[in-house]
Amino acid sequence: MSKIQLTILGLGQIGASLGLALKAHTDQVTRVGNDLVLETARKAEKLGAVDQVQINLHTAVEKADLVVLALPPDQVRETLAIIASDLKDGAVVLDCSPMSRSAAQWAQELLPEGRHFVSFCPTVNPAYLMDSTRGVNAAHEDLFTNSLIYLAAPPATDPDAVKLAADLATLVGSKPVFSDAHELDGLLAAHFLLPRLTAAALINATVDEPGWPEGRKIAGISYAGVTHFAEEQEESKNLGKSALENSDNLVRVLNNLITALVHLRDAIQSQDEEKVHSWLKHAQESRLTWWEQRLKSNWVSTSAEPLPSSTQMLGGLFGLRPRDKKRGPGQS
């Protein structure tokens, strides 16, 4: 079987980890990497996440069978526009950004016929949930082990392209979960974007208060832990873009958060000790239950059916199996 090309655009934690997870299959896959920051790209190459770094974006994708966009949200549309005419017929584009509907719409507008697009949203191995390292330095070969990867494709997407994405998810140690863009954006709004916006809200609610000059001295572990997402300039920029592209879902979950805080405020204001303790106990028990479930990740358990070999998955993954040219779209 001739080698196929996987191009990863963006070599931060997600992109570099995908490359590392495929390291065992370099006899079948050539991993090409590209990053706007050359130092990051070279670091990923040194780690063994890619076989070669290609600085020129057009050259990086022109021979690719599969292109993974592991980019900051504000770079997704521009990158799709740049690479659209370079993608070969049959190429599959996987986007890891937290804005499925917008990315799918851009792909529909920009990609030529015969090129396929699937949202590819990974969760991480629970062993790394508390790891605060960022970027390529946080890349791990097993980052997607014992985790889920959510897939969402536009309605007219070739089923084979969706299967290719699912096979890749399996190959890197994860379990694919099929969703649609609306559902996925709702999940991301509540469980990815909202915690980060809450951190920013806590910062803004305290630093402009008259007591901040003294408050900054007493702020400790709990303050630092809750607000650490707000410390990076790039994170702030990306968060704003993701929030605006998913505004309908985000407004809904922000309202849920505001309602919860109003209930707590009213209970405290009325000196209702029972309600306050009940509110806090519910949060504590719910968090402990979630944490236990997330660490075990029982939902990732595999079936008794044997998985296909990596050769079988890669063969299907990159269109290497012979295709019946007379077969119509969606026909088996």
Q: How many beta-strand runs? A: 8
CATH fold-type name of the largest domain? Rossmann fold
What is the rounded distance between the termini?
24 Å
Mean of pLDDT: 89
Family: Belongs to the prephenate/arogenate dehydrogenase family.
Organism: Levilinea saccharolytica
InterPro entries: 6-PGluconate_DH-like_C_sf, NAD(P)-bd_dom_sf, PDH_N, Preph/Arog_dehydrog, Prephen_DH
Keywords: Oxidoreductase
Task: Describe this entry's structure for a reader.
The protein is 50% helix and 12% strand. The chain is α/β, with parallel strands linked by helices and 332 residues long. The chain has 2 domains: 4-179 and 305-317, NAD(P)-binding Rossmann-like Domain (Rossmann fold, 3-Layer(aba) Sandwich); 184-269, 6-phosphogluconate dehydrogenase C-terminal fold. The chain has an 8-stranded mixed sheet with strand order 3-2-1-4-5-6-7-8, sandwiched between helices. Helix 6 (159-171) runs antiparallel to helix 13 and helix 7 (181-207) crosses helix 11. The longest helix has 27 residues, at 181-207. The radius of gyration is 22 Å and the shape is elongated. The relative contact order is 0.12. The model is unreliable at 320-332 (pLDDT under 50). Residues 311-332 are annotated as: Disordered.
Topology:
Elements: E1 4-9, H1 13-21, E2 29-34, H2 38-47, E3 52-53, H3 57-61, E4 66-69, H4 76-83, E5 92-95, H5 100-110, E6 116-122, E7 148-152, H6 159-171, E8 175-179, H7 181-207, H8 212-218, H9 221-227, H10 233-245, H11 247-269, H12 273-296, H13 310-317
Parallel strand pairs: 1-2, 1-4, 2-3, 4-5, 5-6, 7-8
Antiparallel strand pairs: 6-7
Helix pairs in contact: 4-5, 6-13, 7-11
InterPro entries: 6-PGluconate_DH-like_C_sf, NAD(P)-bd_dom_sf, PDH_N, Preph/Arog_dehydrog, Prephen_DH
Domain Prephenate/arogenate dehydrogenase: 4-298
Family: Belongs to the prephenate/arogenate dehydrogenase family.
